[in-house]
Amino acid sequence: MELRHLKYFLKLAEELSFVRAADKLCISQPPLSRQIKELETELGATLFVRNNKRVALTDAGKYYQNEIQELIQNLERINTTTQKISNNQSGEFRIAYVSSTFSGAISNLIEFLSTEYPYVNFRLYEVPTIKQIAALEAGKIDLGIIRAPLHSPKISSQLWFKDSFSLVYNTNHYHLATETDIPSLSESTFVFFNKDYAPQYYENLLQICAFYGFSPKVVHETNNVSSIIQLVKNGLGVSIVPTSVLRNYLFPELGSFELKSMQLFTDILLASPKEHPSEITQKAIAFLEKEVPYSFDQ
Q1: Are the C-beta atoms of residues 165 and 264 closer than 8 Å to each other?
Q2: How far apart are the C-alpha atoms of 219 and 239, rounded to whole Å?
Q3: Of 104, 190, 252, 261, whose CB has the highest number of CB atoms within 10 Å?
Q4: Residue-level pLDDT at 252
Q5: Which pLDDT band, with edges at 50, 70 and 90, does 298 fall under?
Q6: Are 22 and 28 in contact (CB under 8 A)?
Q7: Half-sphere exposure (CA, 13 Å, Cβ side) for 117?
Q8: 221: how many CB neighbours lie within 10 A of its CB?
């Protein structure tokens, strides 16, 4: 049995016509018929019912079609992965992150990798956690920086750092000193991440507000932490953001303090496709382990 037998079988199973299948395969009909017959003889099973009017899959043929389709898909994935492993000194390496995790550490990583692998094109994308997980499973990105939780048998992950939460506000509009002042914000406008964009993060924010005794009045939603900070900076509301984020936004108008009473944290994970991690992936993770941007002192 050769690979062409399987490809010919799948095309005939799709077209259910020797004429159309042969045309799509750019061969004549007799060789196609011969290849299918050879396959059935080797299997000891009839895969198609054929007569002058139609071609149809038998039950055995339907089962074989499902199994072979999966086999071919796996083979294509294996070939792609093999090529990536072979070309780990060149080509493209794709890194994704969620906006609230961007820091100097990620910039330093790109600089480090570009020096180590000068012939590799490093691509950096801002992608929400849910979409990163799908992209990692499909092999469309090589390294993801995401927020927990992560449940996927196709992805390897490890904790990068634990992040706490901080309240951030405009000091010209609010006079806050400690966590005891938070309940006074029950009627204030809040700026949050969009629920569909970051559902787990959104739920965390609701949970925090409930802990302080109120439900937030969410007026502004956005998909980017920079936009959240800008809205707060302009006096359009208050927000709760990961503490590590604030190191990137040192504006005089902004005040903040860490919410320590609740003891709620969010785990930042380094994630990669589970099968055959590349040399670059391993070096990138090792580098980031030494460049933790923030660690909550519990």
Answers
A1: yes
A2: 11
A3: 190
A4: 92
A5: very low
A6: yes
A7: 19
A8: 17
- From residue 62, how far is each of 12, 13, 56, 255 by CA, in Å? 12, 8, 9, 65
Q: Which of 132, 130, 112, 129 is nearest to 120 (CA)?
A: 112
Which positions ≥6 away from 297 have C-beta within 8 Å? Answer: none
What does the pLDDT look like over 36-66, one tens digit per residue?
999 999 999 999 998 877 899 999 999 999 9
Model pLDDT for residues 91-147, shown as the tens digit of each residue: 789 999 998 888 788 999 999 999 988 878 899 999 989 899 999 998 899 999 998
The residue ranges of DSSP E strands in 117-265, in sequence order, are 120-126, 143-147, 155-163, 165-170, 189-193, 217-222, 239-242, 254-258
Radius of gyration of the chain (CA): 27
**CA distance between the termini of the chain:** 62
Instruction: Find tokens 């990798």 and name the residue.
Output: 113
Pairwise CA distance, residues 223 & 18, whole Å: 52
CB count in 10 Å sphere of residue 81:
15
* CA 290/CA 130 separation, integer angstroms: 26
Enclosing H/E stretch for 74: helix 59-86
Distance (Å, rounded) from C-alpha 36 to C-alpha 47? 9
